[in-house]
Amino acid sequence: MLHRLCLARSRSxxxxxxxxxxxxxxxxxxxxxxxxxxxxxxxxxxxxxxxxRELELLVSPERQVSRREAAGCYRWLAGCGAPAGEEQxxxxxx
Length: 94
Known about the structure:
Blueprint: H1 11-19, E1 23-25, E2 28-29, E3 41-46, E4 51-57, H2 67-71, E5 74-76
Antiparallel strand pairs: 1-2, 1-3, 3-4, 4-5
């Protein structure tokens, strides 16, 4: 799913992050095969920088989407260190 949403460069990198327990869904470490649904919260842990970014999934695409389309499928949660240039907060719409 991370690759479909353009949040990981490749499926193998997304799977590696899951194996290393750097991806949490609703607070729990998950396997790469875990299905996610609308409303799920996905957290990314960065062991190097010690940061945590979290987003809420708004729409679960069934296929690979463009980077522009992907941005409308989730919203970054406030106070979770969204990447520079990304909107965050409760009022950030798709």
